[in-house]
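Pipeline run #58 for the internal structure catalog. This entry was flagged by the ingest filter as a single-chain record with no existing model, so it goes straight to prediction. Upstream metadata was stripped on purpose; only the residue string is passed forward. Reviewer on rotation: M.T. Logging verbosity set to normal.
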Amino acid sequence: MQLSEAFKLISDKVGEALEAQGFQQVKADSAKGNELVSLYVSENVAYSVIYYKDKMHFLLRECPMTDEGPDNDWKTLSTWMFDPSSDEMHEANSIANDFVAEISAPVAQKRVKQTKKSKGKKRDDEGNADPLFLSKRFVTLFPDLKDEIKAEEEGYDPFRGATFARASIVPRVNELVKSGSTAELKKLGNILSAQYVNGDVDTRSIITIVILNSIPEEYDEKINEYLSEDLQVAFKHSKKYRNRTVAPEKEKKKKTSMAQRLDRYNNQ
């Protein structure tokens, strides 16, 4: 099997799993011709997949993020031998599946949360992903949502998280839960679960009270099996608010466009 094919397969699977957790792939330039590297970062943690050609090793590594980027104090989480001259697709898939299991395990989520605590950015029981960050995570499932998010950002400051979720995310989620594939349901569950762990209080409320509680009750069990244990418990408790009239989100100041400001200036 070509090394480039194996590296792409493994990196793509790791990237897909991390994307659902809010990570982004960024360019990673290796200073050594002996290495192939892919790099994925969030606000707090970085992961990298690396292949050493001389040792014929694949590694999955993790390190904390700083304001300047990864701190490069890498910790190896998993190591696999891979010989391109003899190994095939089966071996590459085994490596990819092991790496995905490593980054998706509860202990991995715990490490991310502990990193956040050590930075002192939030209280121990509160993440730092906000409603805008949550909304952007759904673009991987609903690409056409990107333009609506942009319009909301340009029209209102701050971002109306609950209002936007109710108008733009809920209808798409409900349709997916009704007729989506198993892979799509799994991806939806991963997004909701990861953002519930990483989200601030507003984000968690949007996930449970707005999004999950808006799913028709007959589909509760269908989506519930794809949620993390923590989110399953939160969803169960949030159901007491279902069908209740909730005070609407306070109307926020609409942004004045550059054209409107120039027009106002010219008419003075």
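catalog note: The two ends are 71 Å apart (CA to CA).
catalog note: The CA atoms of residues 258 and 264 lie 10 Å apart.
status: ready for reviewer M.T.
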